[in-house]
Write a structure and sequence with these properties.
About 40% of the residues lie in helices and about 20% in strands. It contains eight helices and seven strands.
C-alpha cells in the first residue's frame, strides 16, 4: 500500500516501539503491527496534523469540514422575555492527553442560543469530534470548542460541557478508575446554566 509522508514517519517510530516491546514467543502477531499503529495515529491525530499546517483553528476546521450555516433572524420570532437554547449531546469523543499521549474518552454537550445563524445539528457533533483528534488538555479543548462555536454561530450565548475519563490517571500513576473530570465554559446566565445542568445526564464515558 502507498503511505503518505506522515504515515511513513509514524510507521518508522512504531517500528522502533514494536522492536523494543514485542514478545518474540509469538512474534508472528507483531508483523503488521507498526502499520496498524501508524494508521491509528493518523486517525487519532487527524486534526493535529492539519492544524500544524494552518494559521488558526478556523482555517484548519474548514480544510477538514464543509461547514454550512443558515442565515435566520431568530430573534424576530421571539418576544423580549423569551428564552431559548439549542443543546445537543452527549457527543462521544476520543482523544489523547497532551501530557502522556494516553487515551481520553469523553462525552460532550454543546449548546447555543440561535441569533443570526443556525448551524446544522450534525456539524455540531462533527466539530466536537474532529477538534478532539489532537493531543488535548481538557480545559483548553473545552474553551477552544467554545470559540469555534462562537465563530460559526455568531451567538452571544454558548455552553460547552465536557465530561471525560483520562486513562493517564486510570492506567498509570495513581490508578484511579473512579474519577471522571467535568469542565464547562459558557456565556449563559446562571439560571440558564443551572437549567442546562439539571437537564443533562452525565454518564461515565
Amino acid at each position: 500500500m502507498c503511505m503518505n509522508q506522515t504515515q511513513l514517519q509514524f510507521k518508522q517510530i512504531a517500528d522502533q516501539l514494536v522492536d523494543m516491546t514485542k514478545n518474540n514467543s509469538f512474534a508472528n502477531h507483531f508483523v503488521e503491527t507498526p502499520e496498524r499503529i501508524s494508521k491509528y495515529w493518523l486517525e487519532i491525530m487527524q486534526y493535529a496534523i492539519i492544524r500544524n499546517q494552518c494559521e488558526n483553528d478556523i482555517e484548519a476546521m474548514e480544510r477538514l469540514l464543509n461547514i454550512k450555516s443558515f442565515d435566520d433572524e431568530i430573534d424576530e420570532l421571539s418576544n423580549a422575555n423569551s428564552s431559548k437554547l439549542l443543546l445537543t449531546g452527549p457527543i462521544k469523543v476520543y482523544s489523547v492527553c497532551a501530557h502522556h499521549y494516553a487515551p481520553i474518552l469523553g462525552n460532550v454537550f454543546v449548546g447555543y442560543r440561535p441569533k443570526h445563524k443556525i448551524l446544522g445539528l450534525s456539524k455540531l457533533s462533527r466539530i466536537a469530534k474532529l477538534y478532539a483528534r489532537q493531543p488535548i488538555v481538557q480545559e483548553l479543548y473545552t474553551e477552544g470548542l467554545y470559540k469555534l462555536l462562537q465563530e460559526y454561530t455568531e451567538s452571544d450565548h454558548i455552553v460547552v460541557i465536557t465530561y471525560m475519563r483520562h486513562l493517564c490517571m486510570e492506567s498509570r500513576g495513581v490508578n484511579d478508575t473512579n474519577s471522571v473530570t467535568l469542565y464547562y465554559y459558557h456565556s449563559l446566565s446562571q439560571q440558564e446554566f443551572d437549567s442546562v445542568m439539571s437537564t443533562i445526564h452525565l454518564e461515565k464515558p
